[in-house]
Amino acid sequence: MPLWKIYHPAGAYTDDDKNAFSKSITSLYELVPIPKFYVVCVFEEMPAGTIYVGGERHDQFVRIRVDQIARTMPGQIVREWWVSQLERVIGPWVKDRGYDWEISVDETPFDLWSLQGEIPPPFESIAEKRWVAENKALSYGQAEKLPASMNGLTLPGMTG
Amino acid sequence: MPLWKIYHPAGAYTDDDKNAFSKSITSLYELVPIPKFYVVCVFEEMPAGTIYVGGERHDQFVRIRVDQIARTMPGQIVREWWVSQLERVIGPWVKDRGYDWEISVDETPFDLWSLQGEIPPPFESIAEKRWVAENKALSYGQAEKLPASMNGLTLPGMTG
Amino acid sequence: MPLWKIYHPAGAYTDDDKNAFSKSITSLYELVPIPKFYVVCVFEEMPAGTIYVGGERHDQFVRIRVDQIARTMPGQIVREWWVSQLERVIGPWVKDRGYDWEISVDETPFDLWSLQGEIPPPFESIAEKRWVAENKALSYGQAEKLPASMNGLTLPGMTG
To answer: Which residues pair with A66 in a beta bridge?
Structure first.
């Protein structure tokens, strides 16, 4: 997670394009940051005559569908900003290439997900920092599920 | 949105079939109404030996999976009616052709979605009426996010 | 439902493999039990150069994405157990074959789903038992929507 499905016209992207496109998508999530290897892009080449928009065949259309983890984009401001970031990243591959396009994001449960047989550690946890640093799934213990930073967990006036 | 993924046996539908099928799907949403170009159908031709039902290979099976916007189908009566409408639309392409079939709808967030770089206007808004009329994504201002009709926003006995 | 989408490298699985893999997945849901024919597996063969993980092309990656019905996996204990069961079932087809892999489950609405034109009966209902026994979609009446067993519907001390 995230999982990007990119339905694109046959021949729209070379292997080099797909590499660069997926790197650009990945860099967006590195801002968060989450482990780079969480970001999976599946390019699905659609033959002519397989995509219809508003009941009309459309052979120059790119449809992107993303699965992200639920509750990681809280609040209207962050969500609008995120959509603008998605558009910034995909723009060079859709608009600038003369394709029509649409993108939508679904939000799926955190706790029904695993990677290489490991349940991913909580966001911002000590274990996740290690996954980010080593860029692969690693075993971790209970203590590493704790937040890497206690910032934001205490309130002014708390004494303990 | 909506996004229809139609997994079908290789050779099940000609280009003319796909055109007619997608027109029929689109007409269902025109009842709402939403802009026609919101309706995207992706036909995915599955080679023999790629679909298994209950652990048995099934080469005459059509599986349809739809993404719709969450909270636009409120209440049990509307939702049951909607399923019956889906069945009415797909019937000629599945049952009447001798295929087995299944359809399911997922509901995804309204606010993580964009089209041609534009965040779609609120349902029933002034801007959406313009999108319906011109059948394409257009820039719009804050004032056009208001409902096109104030019907239903006032209650009997309200004085202001 | 459930719907399993299995994105796998071209040539990873023979028809016999896919048959055995889908039987193994189906057996997991028979534990619940739900009708066997609810379990649909779609094997999607991805050509080299179509999957990118963390911005790097990865031709030995299996990505599995499952749709299940919302609210059927209640509570943290059951959900963790379920992920472990998924891993147990897929292990021989991914880890043991030397592939990298990831699996995630989405939860979709029960009431926007139909099979062969029939809205599936409530879980654990009399009608569902009949669907399990006959392993196909059948018409059913209002009375068959009742639970097959009243166990768990009464509490100690209830007198009626």
So the answer is: A4, A105
My answer on whether A57 and A27 are in the same domain is yes
Cα B114–Cα B106–Cα B29 angle in degrees, nearest 5: 65
pTM of the model: 0.94
Give me the amino acid identity at C103.
I
Look at B40 and A53 and tell me if their CB atoms are within 8 Å. Answer: yes
A41 touches chain C (CB under 8 A): yes
Are A15 and A90 part of one and the same domain?
A: yes
Residues 6+ apart with CB under 8 A from C116: B95, B100, B101, B102, C136, C137
What's the number of CA atoms in the CB half-sphere (13 Å) around residue A83? Answer: 23
Same domain, C26 and C88: yes
Contact C39, C26 (CB under 8 A): yes
Q: Give the CA-trace dihedral at B142, B143, B147, B148, to 10 degrees.
A: -130
Cβ-defined contact of B112 to A73 (cutoff 8 Å): yes
Give residues with Cβ within 8 angstroms of B4, minimum separation 6: B22, B25, B39, B40, B41, B42, B64, B65, B66
Q: Which has the closest alpha carbon to A7: A61, A49, A80, A85?
A: A61
ipTM of this complex = 0.94
Q: State whether residue C50 is helix, strand or coil.
A: coil
Q: Which chains touch A (3 or more CB pairs under 8 A)?
A: B, C
Domain that holds residue B157: 114-160
pLDDT digits (tens, 9 = 90+) for A23-32: 999 999 998 8
Element (H, E) at C101: strand C100-108
The alpha-carbon gap from A64 to the nearest alpha carbon of chain B, in Å, equals 10
Which CA distances in Å does C119 have to A74, B14, B23, B83, C123?
Answer: 35, 29, 25, 8, 12
For residue A9, the model assigns a pLDDT of: 98
